[in-house]
Write a structure and sequence with these properties.
Shape: globular
Strand order of the largest sheet: 8-9-10-11-13-12
Helix content: 40-55%
Number of helices: 17
Structural class: alpha/beta
Length: 390
């Protein structure tokens, strides 16, 4: 079992969100009191009972507490019956019960009663495994090909065929269960075409019109599908930095799927290691994903951006902490870096002097190219707190 970085509040109720197979249930069950009340809404019988009569949940919780059971209630995949959040709200107000709720679909919660829990529960997000959590299993080539979902990471190096099978099934299950069974999109075929294009362009600038042309969909439909992907926790937008005193910046965001293995499964590229060009794109995405996960876990006031001018000058990643830019980062999937690789950082320095600049690479050791510090990717994350000025 992998030791997770994320710690759940010990006393306060919590809503733990994350994609399927990221280990939400495993994390919760590892800290759950023995006599806690456990309700798994993935079980059809449980789902139907509460869907028919949500008030049954309140009566059962009250009975459990009255008989001396641990005042902790774990509800797995709560988005399947959003009406239960009304009951949770009432029980938090009236009883000493502590609730641990997990969900893999924020869209259904937004349409339910999740707003009633504002201020009453802590919200946490669980991601695929970080480099620290992977430990000795953090092999770069395996990560770039198979990603870091826990069940995949357990077997990827020893049994790549089985890892590929899990990821292909995951992509199919996502479409069938999250989209079709939950009626999130009206036309599953149209969404499947969109998802093929979105996966192929993961980490690139999002142009809704161009994606629509490639997928044969209207621009508004494409926009709504990207919202679906965010709400179902399949990906996130990396916005462009827009406060430049000297240049008009490109405002289109980049969109990153949440896991490289799922991205490769959707692109049907699990059968062999990536070619050099594809490897470079995946390495950049890995650094962005790892940064995103670490900020959410440990530095919630920090934000990520990228920088690009209308003249084509570009920096892969900017890190803002407490409202101030603290680092500009170029990402290169090779060990040898020279001045020609750092033109974007030089352009950025002209507009934003004083911001520390880094190049994250596959070099075995750190060195400098002018004023830019070239860091091995593991060292970059090892110094993350220092780089953020935390």
């Amino acid at each position: 079992m992998f030791k997770r970085t994320l710690n759940l509040p010990e006393q306060r109720s919590v809503l733990l969100l994350g994609p399927r197979q990221t280990g939400k249930s495993t994390l919760v069950r590892a800290v759950l009191p023995t006599e806690a009340l456990v309700i798994d809404l993935l079980h059809t019988e449980e789902f139907l009972r509460y869907a028919r009569d949500p008030s049954l949940f309140r009566r059962e919780v009250l009975h459990h507490i009255s008989r001396g059971g641990a005042p902790t209630v774990f509800v797995d995949e709560v988005q399947r019956v959003p009406a239960l959040l009304d009951e949770v709200h009432a029980l938090i107000e009236a009883t000493p019960a502590r609730f641990i709720l997990t969900g893999s679909n924020a869209r259904k919660l937004k349409r339910g009663a999740a707003n009633l829990l504002a201020g009453r529960v802590s919200v946490r997000h669980l991601h695929p495994l970080t480099l620290d959590e992977l430990g000795d299993a953090a092999d770069l080539e395996t990560l770039l090909r198979f990603g870091s979902l826990p069940p995949v990471s357990q077997i990827a190096r020893d049994d790549p065929a089985a890892a590929s099978e899990i990821l292909r099934a995951y992509a199919l299950t996502y479409l069938q269960e999250e989209m079709q069974a939950e009626a999130i999109v009206r036309q599953l075929g149209a969404f499947a075409r969109f998802l093929d294009v979105a996966a192929a362009q993961s980490g690139e600038l999002v142009n809704f019109s161009a994606v629509g042309r490639d997928a044969g969909l209207a621009t508004r439909t494409v926009q709504s599908y990207y919202e679906v992907m965010e709400d179902t926790l399949l990906g996130f937008r990396l916005p462009a930095w827009q406060r430049s005193p000297r240049a008009r910046l490109v405002a289109h965001p980049r969109f990153h799927l949440f896991d490289l293995g799922v991205t490769n499964a959707l692109c049907r590229r699990l059968g062999a290691p990536p070619d050099p060009v594809r490897r470079g794109h995946l390495f950049e995405q890995m650094i962005v994903l790892e940064s995103h996960r670490r900020l959410e876990y440990s530095f919630p006031e920090a934000r990520l951006f990228f920088w690009r001018t209308n003249h084509g000058a570009e920096v892969d990643l900017l890190i803002e902490h407490h409202g101030e830019l603290c680092a500009a980062v170029e990402i290169k999937s090779r060990a040898s870096i020279d001045n020609a690789d750092l033109s974007g950082l030089r352009s950025f320095a002209e507009a934003h002097p004083g911001v520390r600049r880094y190049c994250v690479s596959t070099s075995p050791r750190a060195y400098r190219v002018g004023e830019v510090e070239v860091l091995p990717y593991a060292e970059f994350f090892g110094r993350f707190e220092e780089i953020l000025g935390a």
